Amino acid sequence: MFSKFFEELKARGPLDKDKWDEYVSHYNRIEVPAKAVLLKEGEISKRAYIVEQGCMRVWFNNNGKDITYHFVFENEVVTSAESFIKNVPSLFTIETIEPCVVHWIHKHDLDRILGEMHEIPEVRKAYLDAIIERQFHYMKQFLSFIKDTPTQRYLNLIEENPQIIKRVPQHYIASYLGITPVSLSRIRSKVKLYQ
């Protein structure tokens, strides 16, 4: 059974069933346990993943300390885009938090498919929209680190991404917010007092 992501993509593009089935056949569905590393920092990314079920985190090493900067949930795509496109070492690690079901495709297969689909405006727009949305997310996160207090960043997270609060271990959330687990615990206690 294919994920909602595939169904939404199929609805956008005017592809006949045979061509669609050919493209989808290049995706491999696998089940991955929690704490599995799908891409290590420094490796060259050769696969793109679509999450059918589960949660992942994207993190990098900063002087021996891992820094989480993105979470990935159902129907989202994850890869090290710069590494995948430019064939350079990845700047981060992709790791599962929960047991996951993912669909992966090899770079050479995706390159061929995208080359064939390039002339279909609906599909091109879908890919551009996904790229722009991801960049908007990173820009918003970066600006929040500059202008918001840690408490405000936590409140923003509760409002905008409640599934992170419900599904992700606290030490990863603390890393994502740029604070220690102890600071996060204090913020959570303070926020509960005012709710």
Automatic annotation (TrEMBL):
Give every Cyclic nucleotide-binding domain span: 15-120
Q: Name one Pfam family in it.
A: cNMP_binding
Protein name in UniProt: Crp/Fnr family transcriptional regulator
Source organism per UniProt? Nemorincola caseinilytica
